[in-house]
Amino acid sequence: MTDTKDNGFVKLVTVYDQFNVTAIGKILDELNIEYKEKHGSIDESLAQILGDQLSGTDLMVKEEDLKDARKAINEVLAIDFSGYEQEEESENNK
Hints:
The protein is an alpha+beta fold. Helices cover about 45% and strands about 25% of the residues.
């Protein structure tokens, strides 16, 4: 992954609408998981498909909270993190 660590925070997920930013933020708040929003993330693969650059928001959590945050978000919103996990694994194997 590129540019996914930020002062002890790692990317949880990139979302492209305010509903999901708010929903995920509320879930993290309920779990007392500190998070940051990093605006302006570009998903180049999605942009290629749609023919435009889309800007999203990366939701960042502390690395030690990543597993718990993913589990909670998956249970509530059914977001599948397997793609993120595969990307992280390939980056760690370099």
